[in-house]
């Protein structure tokens, strides 16, 4: 507790009082650069000391106003969706948070092609510094990655069009495609894909294109063991299966952000893991 200054203390107490889960508070602290076990200790001590006790008894009106409202998800209904040039099967739909698992978004050849094109471009992955928005290498994200700018060539354009059709969101609201590679032991600890509005560094990233609204993670290989995409708040774990994908949506039409979409990449315990990620924004993104 002695490492916490008054500002952090106040932040922690107000988040506990708002009813945030301990896991999401720890995740936000880790994203801000605090060591994960220290963050867990600090949250545990605050709870034991009675900070946030009011959460259960006061301010239901404030809570109501802040509660994320689940509005209609843009993804088409049905068990099979025509996405530009491909029929994509829907395996699972979760309502709260909004998560959809797909099969067969990419063919085996497309997955293999992307992996081969990426091998020589890979660089250690970074994370947004919450204070100044810079891209920093951190220990909670142990992967390497590279980017393919939107519609860079014929294959990337076809995939961008297919993904935009599947996510039912304009193609020019999408960031480039990111490829990530995790070796055995690699992981991405729980985080939010949106840029937390209360962090100064987020401004750098939302100034063009606005906030991120939804993510599609496509698995490019079968992972021998581990490497599931986990949603600890929703208690959902998605297995990496070549060509399959998981979609989740965290910004509604009112601009609220869904803390239930806390998610991470569990450690790969055997083999390796390759994924491709598409993040969609509120507005045109260049
Ligand atoms: O590799 C994953 O499963 C994963 C998990 C959480 C990837 C991301 N987030 C991401 O690319 O944002
Ligand atoms: Zn993520």
TrEMBL record:
The keyword DNA damage does not apply. SMART domains: P4Hc (SM00702). The keyword Iron applies. Gene3D superfamilies: q2cbj1_9rhob like domain. Its cofactor is L-ascorbate. Keywords: Dioxygenase, Iron, Metal-binding, Oxidoreductase, Vitamin C. PANTHER family: PROLYL 4-HYDROXYLASE ALPHA SUBUNIT (PTHR10869), TRANSMEMBRANE PROLYL 4-HYDROXYLASE (PTHR10869:SF246). Residues 173-282 form the Fe2OG dioxygenase domain. InterPro entries: Oxoglu/Fe-dep_dioxygenase_dom (IPR005123), P4HA-like (IPR045054), Pro_4_hyd_alph (IPR006620), Pro_4_hyd_alph_FE2OG_OXY (IPR044862). This is 2OG-Fe(II) oxygenase.
